[in-house]
């Protein structure tokens, strides 16, 4: 069945609807450049309500397994590919890409000229789009606050390590918890709006502010609580969490033209003077000049465009990264970030003991 991708700038791309669907689907259209990792992308809460375009021409060739999910279900609004493989050629494959998306009623559109579509996004920026069975459609998208839609409403604990981390769930990826557990941590996941008083009752060694979807400034009412928490405990902040820390200290953020979404983004580490390959998924970035009168200094810089990829507090044990050190998908170059975080917590515990 014919389907059409209508962009806000007036461009339309034709394709084939692979899953059963009626009506229109709207969302912000963005692209991901990784050759693999589509299962992790589909289930990453940071993609909530976005229409994802995969730039690699063949998607689905190793199917969908039961273990590489980043959350319990897909969060993307729709999927656009050039070619969708019908069969998953991997011994762990439990579903084909089409079967998995059909199970969750996520539209899959194939045979789209994804190269031309991505050029439009690069030239005009990420923008609202509508997928429709009609050749014409009105492109409009209501402003949404996605974090409450993806954050947990319960308190859950994972692992049994020596160090206790409270993870603020703004839309966290399962791999972040796994990485912490591999570094000897017990992880308690709490809702995004958890107060300092509740955190104190949990008595952690440190806190982690997770990744998540949307504009960080939508969470401005919670910044005083964020500041109170991070001033009290050693902190690791990832992606959206990194942006919230910067905002809490008086920095500013802005939207990138088309964002960084892929598994091969080079990042320069100012501290070690090394370049790391990173996995990334963000549409907003901290403005470097806005940090001038804050206690934060730039630790990581994107090699391609010079944007801020991480900051560190000048005196407190607070480390923030814009990229995803847990990877999944992508390279594991920056797993050392979790080791640094554990070292910060151990040092703080030692100071507490001898205080």
UniProtKB/TrEMBL annotation:
Residues 1-132 form the Carbamoyl-phosphate synthase small subunit N-terminal domain. Coiled coil: none annotated. Pathway: Amino-acid biosynthesis; L-arginine biosynthesis; carbamoyl phosphate from bicarbonate: step 1/1; Pyrimidine metabolism; UMP biosynthesis via de novo pathway; (S)-dihydroorotate from bicarbonate: step 1/3. GO terms for molecular function: ATP binding; carbamoyl-phosphate synthase (glutamine-hydrolyzing) activity; glutaminase activity. Its EC number is 6.3.5.5. Residues 1-163 are annotated as: CPSase. It catalyses: hydrogencarbonate + L-glutamine + 2 ATP + H2O = carbamoyl phosphate + L-glutamate + 2 ADP + phosphate + 2 H(+); L-glutamine + H2O = L-glutamate + NH4(+). The keyword Amino-acid biosynthesis applies. It is an enzyme of class 6 (ligase). The active site is at 239 (nucleophile), 324, 326. One of its GO terms (biological process) is 'de novo' UMP biosynthetic process. Keywords: Amino-acid biosynthesis, Arginine biosynthesis, ATP-binding, Glutamine amidotransferase, Ligase, Nucleotide-binding, Pyrimidine biosynthesis. Small subunit of the glutamine-dependent carbamoyl phosphate synthetase (CPSase). CPSase catalyzes the formation of carbamoyl phosphate from the ammonia moiety of glutamine, carbonate, and phosphate donated by ATP, constituting the first step of 2 biosynthetic pathways, one leading to arginine and/or urea and the other to pyrimidine nucleotides. The small subunit (glutamine amidotransferase) binds and cleaves glutamine to supply the large subunit with the substrate ammonia. Belongs to the CarA family. Composed of two chains; the small (or glutamine) chain promotes the hydrolysis of glutamine to ammonia, which is used by the large (or ammonia) chain to synthesize carbamoyl phosphate. Tetramer of heterodimers (alpha,beta)4. HAMAP family: CPSase_S_chain (MF_01209). PANTHER family: CARBAMOYL-PHOSPHATE SYNTHASE SMALL CHAIN, MULTIFUNCTIONAL TRYPTOPHAN BIOSYNTHESIS PROTEIN-RELATED. This is Carbamoyl phosphate synthase small chain. It comes from Anoxybacillus pushchinoensis.
């Amino acid at each position: 069945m014919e389907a059409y991708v209508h962009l806000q700038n007036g461009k339309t791309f034709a394709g084939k609807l692979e899953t059963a669907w009626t009506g229109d689907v709207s969302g912000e259209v963005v692209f991901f450049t990784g050759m693999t990792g589509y299962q992790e992308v589909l289930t990453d809460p940071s993609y909530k309500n976005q229409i994802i375009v995969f730039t690699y021409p063949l998607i689905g060739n190793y199917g969908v397994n039961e273990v590489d999910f980043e959350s319990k279900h897909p969060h993307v609004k729709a999927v656009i590919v050039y070619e969708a493989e019908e069969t998953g050629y991997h011994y762990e494959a439990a579903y084909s890409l089409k079967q998995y998306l059909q199970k969750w009623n996520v539209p899959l559109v194939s045979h789209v000229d994804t190269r031309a579509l991505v050029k439009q996004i690069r030239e005009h920026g990420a923008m609202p789009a509508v997928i429709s069975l009609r050749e014409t459609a009105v492109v409009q998208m209501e402003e949404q606050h996605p974090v409450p839609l993806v954050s947990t409403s319960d308190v859950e604990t994972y692992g049994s390590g020596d160090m206790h981390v409270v993870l603020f769930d703004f839309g966290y990826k399962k791999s972040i918890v796994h990485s912490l557990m591999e570094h000897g941590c017990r992880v308690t996941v709490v809702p995004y709006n958890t107060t300092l008083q509740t955190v104190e009752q949990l008595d952690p060694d440190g806190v982690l502010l997770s990744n998540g979807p949307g504009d960080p400034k939508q969470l401005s009412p919670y910044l005083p609580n964020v500041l109170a928490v991070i001033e009290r405990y050693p902190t690791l902040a990832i992606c959206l969490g990194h942006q919230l820390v910067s905002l809490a200290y008086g920095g500013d953020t802005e939207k990138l033209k088309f964002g960084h979404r892929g598994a091969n983004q080079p990042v320069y580490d100012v501290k070690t003077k090394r370049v790391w390959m990173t996995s990334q998924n963000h549409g907003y970035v901290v403005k470097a000049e806005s940090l001038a009168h804050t206690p934060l200094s730039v630790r990581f810089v994107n090699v391609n465009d010079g944007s801020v990829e991480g900051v560190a507090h000048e005196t407190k044990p607070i480390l923030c990264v814009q990229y995803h050190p847990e990877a999944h998908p992508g390279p594991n170059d920056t797993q050392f970030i979790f080791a640094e975080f554990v070292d910060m917590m151990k040092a703080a515990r030692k100071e507490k003991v001898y205080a």
